[in-house]
Amino acid sequence: MKLYELVGKDKTQGFSPYVWRSRMALAHKGCTVEMVPLIFTEIADVEGANAKTVPILEHNGTFITDSWNIACYLDEQFPDRPPLFNGAQGKAQANLFNNIFFYNLVVPLFPALVGDIFNVIDDRDRDYFRTSREARLGKSLEEAAAQQEDYLAQFRKQLWPYNQTLKAQDYFDGASPAYSDYIMYGLFQWAKGVSPCQLLNTDDPLHDWRARMDDLYDSLGKVIKPRG
Ligand SMILES: N[C@@H](CCC(=O)N[C@@H](CS)C(=O)NCC(=O)O)C(=O)O
């Protein structure tokens, strides 16, 4: 199996939040995977994948794109291994979690990190990244970076339901981690991989949860080194 991921100048520090979901999901399933680093402007060139984004999973000559599809594929292909979704109802709940999570957390975090991302990407990606992200932001990367603290404050306010949930349970999926946890963990791997800013207070339940997630699968997530 191969998992195509997104890197910047440092090819060991894959920072895509969506790739991290798939990477953790593959580890959860006990799958051994070869990571294939790509920069933004190489993604469309992966022959046979017909992809615009990573992650891309290649398995027995089949390409699966989109992290959600990859998770569904893994549960279908390996039904005897620990499930990522607890049945059809669990999958439907994870889908809701994913969409709320996107709206609550990804949307405010993207402008907070965009200036830091620009500093870590490969030089060959800089024009593409600036043009595409400035169109999405409706402002320059520098203007967004100057407002980083405001965006982070908005982001931190949105953490309340997630911290509250972890007061009653160890993982978003209950007593042990599964796909909702990997959705959340990807976000923190993204921030850690590109930015020195601290998203959490040490007394946030999410802080301890993240430490537990860091220890999973031979500390897989710790391949990302803090920038701060
Ligand atoms: N819905 C997709 C989103 C994936 C995505 O947005 N990936 C980003 C990296 S974090 C990407 O490949 N972007 C390529 C680009 O913007 O050109 C998924 O879940 O896999």
UniProtKB/TrEMBL annotation:
<feature type="domain" description="GST N-terminal">
    <location>
        <begin position="6"/>
        <end position="82"/>
    </location>
</feature>
<dbReference type="Pfam" id="PF13417">
    <property type="entry name" value="GST_N_3"/>
</dbReference>
<dbReference type="InterPro" id="IPR004045">
    <property type="entry name" value="Glutathione_S-Trfase_N"/>
</dbReference>
<dbReference type="GO" id="GO:0004364">
    <property type="term" value="F:glutathione transferase activity"/>
</dbReference>
<dbReference type="GO" id="GO:0006749">
    <property type="term" value="P:glutathione metabolic process"/>
</dbReference>
<keyword id="KW-0808">Transferase</keyword>
<dbReference type="GO" id="GO:0045174">
    <property type="term" value="F:glutathione dehydrogenase (ascorbate) activity"/>
</dbReference>
<dbReference type="InterPro" id="IPR036282">
    <property type="entry name" value="Glutathione-S-Trfase_C_sf"/>
</dbReference>
<dbReference type="Pfam" id="PF22041">
    <property type="entry name" value="GST_C_7"/>
</dbReference>
<protein>
    <submittedName>
        <fullName>Glutathione S-transferase</fullName>
    </submittedName>
</protein>
<dbReference type="InterPro" id="IPR050983">
    <property type="entry name" value="GST_Omega/HSP26"/>
</dbReference>
<dbReference type="InterPro" id="IPR036249">
    <property type="entry name" value="Thioredoxin-like_sf"/>
</dbReference>
<dbReference type="InterPro" id="IPR054416">
    <property type="entry name" value="GST_UstS-like_C"/>
</dbReference>
<dbReference type="GO" id="GO:0005737">
    <property type="term" value="C:cytoplasm"/>
</dbReference>
